Amino acid sequence: MICILFACNTSSSSTRSNIDGQQTDDSLLFTDVTDTHFPIAPELHILNPLLVDVDGDGDLDAVCGVELDVNRLYLNDGTGKFTWKRGVFSDVKYDTEHVRSADFNQDGHIDLIFVAEDDQNHEFYLGNGDGTFTAAHERLLAKSEGNGLDIGDVNGDGLVDIVIGNSGEAGQNFLWLNVPDNPGTFIDATKSHLPQINDKTQSIALADLDGDGDLDMMVGNEVPPNRLLINDGKGVFTEKTEGFELLVPLETRMILLADVDGDQDLDAVFSNLTSNGGEWVKDPQMRILINDGNANFADETESRMPKNKFSSYASHFIDFDGDGDLDLLVGTVEIPGFNPDQLRAYENDGSGNFTDVTQKAIPASVVSRGWDMTVGDVNADGIDDVIVGGWKSQARLLFGNRNAETKSQNKNY
Prior knowledge:
Elements lengths: L29 E3 L1 H4 L8 E7 L8 E9 L2 E5 L5 E4 L8 E9 L8 E6 L6 E5 L5 E3 L9 E8 L8 E7 L6 E5 L7 E3 L1 H4 L7 E7 L8 E6 L5 E5 L5 E3 L11 E8 L8 E7 L13 E5 L5 E3 L1 H4 L6 E8 L8 E8 L4 E4 L1 E5 L5 E3 L1 H4 L5 E2 L1 E7 L8 E6 L5 E5 L3 H6 L4
Antiparallel strand pairs: 1-30, 2-3, 3-4, 3-6, 4-5, 6-7, 7-8, 8-9, 10-11, 11-12, 12-13, 14-15, 15-16, 16-17, 18-19, 19-20, 20-21, 22-23, 23-24, 23-25, 24-27, 25-26, 28-29, 29-30
């Protein structure tokens, strides 16, 4: 009897398969509830959904960074059913790429920052705590082709700072430090605190990579090699090249940092493209770099990651089998051709070795030009759910299926 992916259930519905051999929704790790629970907009480019409680009612709402349309707020009714609350953000259709949330001004409410690419119109909103926001875009210090975004306290003063990954002719990344005397305003520390390099950055991630208690930075680039930057504890970053193994040329679109092998340090997973919707150029293989605890990263893709030919603009960690380690969902696009493809599910064995279990985990309906994802329990059943963004594709809402207590017992064959 196989219990690794199915709740032990004697009903016939738990083992039915469709004509392609994929299990039906009620026997999978996720159920696609998009048609009944999420706004239908099949032509929309939701590049970055984000789950956060913006109205203080105790459930997770969805803030959506939208390319070439207005950014959207979808309010959760508490059962995981989302409704578009119109008019919350600017009604101008910007080229938004990413969104992050934090209490930047320390008033107890969630604030938001969006960054845009081609039109360079970044947006900053101060939350009022009731699902409404006050625009404060003037607090952002510069325009840029923003393609990467992360937030965190990089200088140890207890305030949330901003890093923006930039592309284009002026591809210098930004570091904006939150001002202690006036939280929610920023000073530009780019020249004094970051290497002066014009990268074509597509992803930027903050995390403590060397175990010294401050936030380091990893940078995913379109053309030049990815970079590892070490923080001196005061928010000043220096590039570390030795011990950062990059075996092949990459076009990286997302960097994820997490402990995948259970050794208490943070490893890296890169989502890569062969090209941005063009011809076959680079190897788009998902890559995994294992940290030795001192920010020395070895590329162990060959032995740990399933082989792939699809391109991936984004991926997301989630413990979808409930065994306490981080599994992986991978958004995919077929390139050349820029065609929709099925969301992939990679299961972690607890030691950082991943196996493709898509056919036993993901409903066949979840086919799109997959983009960024967000994870959280939206229907209050104790199991993480997922919103999958997409480029000119319906964003999809997937409910996690399995009982959390049952899942933790069902890892063994």
